TrEMBL record:
Record domain Galactokinase N-terminal: where: 16-52
Protein name per Swiss-Prot or TrEMBL: Galactokinase
Family to which the UniProt record says this protein belongs: Belongs to the GHMP kinase family. GalK subfamily.
Coiled-coil residue spans: none
Top-level taxon in the UniProt lineage: Bacteria
Gene Ontology molecular function: ATP binding; galactokinase activity; metal ion binding
InterPro entries tied to this protein: Galactokinase, Galactokinase_CS, GalKase_N, GHMP_kinase_C_dom, GHMP_kinase_C_sf, GHMP_kinase_N_dom, GHMP_knse_ATP-bd_CS, Mevalonate/galactokinase
Gene Ontology CC terms: cytosol
Domain GHMP kinase C-terminal: 274-352
Pfam families documented for this protein: GalKase_gal_bdg, GHMP_kinases_C, GHMP_kinases_N
Length: 375
């Protein structure tokens, strides 16, 4: 797990550079807000933050994400900043709420994490800003605590009702490892699990379908509300603790389907953990595909582009494939033999062309280090 240690604050005029990765969730979707497990990796795509300390209580931000700059006070509160800048301001606000108010900063942000692709570009931005501010001020912030502060920024400032998985993956990622995240406890626990698919001749292919999505409200918020309704109905503190026969107590067909996903996905993460340890890639791939079917049919968060990607990848030899992230667009992943990456990528692209979908972007990712100082 990546760690953060206290250091002397940056000297006036000194510039430091920090980076925070995006993430891919291997399995365990929509469980991080119901007390369930998830298994993401931090990926080798990052948001980079160059930072310089100020002393006037102002934060100025320039970014390749958008033209122009954003400026706000270190005493910012939710609602002050709109657009992409609200993720930066949210991190400043959440840290201040924890007793860490910056004296001011100049921030220059760049990123190669695709926006709207379901790879947690927002979490990478929040975590990148969080570790940069901690670095220039000399704050000692535990990675899990920083992740939870950045999640609060996304929830309360940016208005997206997400769980903690994205930020935990970005902060705690470990090269060559997946992360088994357990959210039933507070704070959540994060355990690195060796992931040897590269050594075993496999690759994790990401297909950015370019079907854009947003977590700020809408259907994502509706799913979260439905899980809260189910927990209340069943008298459970965490919905992921529901026993298999709990579905018999739910009459509404839609709520029953949502619960069925939570129960079966929780079981799939447990099985996937064992398969990963055993390097049983056939079993792991089958669990990935079963996860997608559940997300499509029971949780109803897939999209035509995601379903087409999974279908084409499986038809052309992928061991398993699934949507990744919150859904309604974004990206899918496929576990494929390394020498078949190009063939599977071409097959997916051809399938999109035949239906006149926008051409997808395909690339391979590997488990990588979490947020850290670059220079």
């Amino acid at each position: 797990m990546s760690g953060m240690t206290a250091a002397e604050p940056l000297a006036e005029g000194e510039i430091g550079v920090w980076a925070a990765p995006g993430r891919v969730n291997l399995i365990g979707e929509h469980l991080d807000y119901v007390g369930g497990p998830a298994m993401p990796i931090a990926i080798d795509l990052h948001t980079t933050v160059k930072a310089r300390r100020r002393t006037d209580g102002r934060v100025r931000v320039w970014s390749s994400i958008s033209d122009g700059s954003v400026e706000f006070g270190a005493d910012t509160t939710p609602g002050d900043v709109k657009g992409w800048g609200r993720y930066v301001a949210g991190a400043v606000w959440s840290l201040a709420e924890s007793g860490r108010t910056t004296r001011g900063a100049d921030l220059v942000i760049s990123s190669d994490v695709p926006l709207g692709a379901g790879l947690s570009s927002s979490a990478a931005l929040e975590c990148g800003v969080g570790v940069a501010l901690a670095g220039i001020e000399g704050w000692d912030v535990d990675p899990v605590e920083m992740a939870l502060l950045c999640q609060r920024a996304e929830n309360a400032y940016a208005g997206a009702p997400t769980g903690s998985m994205d930020q935990l993956a970005s902060m705690c990622g470990s090269e060559g490892h997946a992360l088994l995240i357990e959210t039933a406890s507070l704070p959540p626990t994060v355990k690195p699990v060796p992931a040897h698919w590269v050594e075993d001749g496999l690759a994790l292919l990401v297909v950015d379908t370019r079907a854009k999505h947003s977590h700020a409200g809408g259907e994502y918020g509706k799913r979260r509300a439905q899980t809260e309704e189910l927990a209340t109905l069943l008298g459970l503190e965490t919905l992921a603790s529901a026993p298999p026969d709990a579905v018999l107590k739910v009459e509404d067909p839609e709520l029953k389907a949502r619960l069925r996903h939570v129960i079966t996905e929780t079981q799939r993460v447990r099985s996937a953990t064992r398969a990963l340890a055993a390097r049983d890639w056939t079993q792991f791939g089958q669990l990935m595909t079963a996860s997608h079917v559940s997300l499509r049919d029971d949780f109803a968060v897939s999209a035509p582009e995601l379903d087409l990607t999974v279908e084409a990848a499986l038809e052309h030899g992928a061991l398993g494939a699934r949507m990744t992230g919150g859904g309604f667009g974004g990206s899918a992943i496929a576990l494929v033999e390394a020498d078949r990456v190009e063939a599977v990528s071409a097959a997916v692209t051809d399938a999109f062309t035949r239906i006149d979908f926008k051409a997808p972007r395909t690339f391979v990712v590997a488990p990588s280090q979490g947020a850290h100082r670059v220079s």
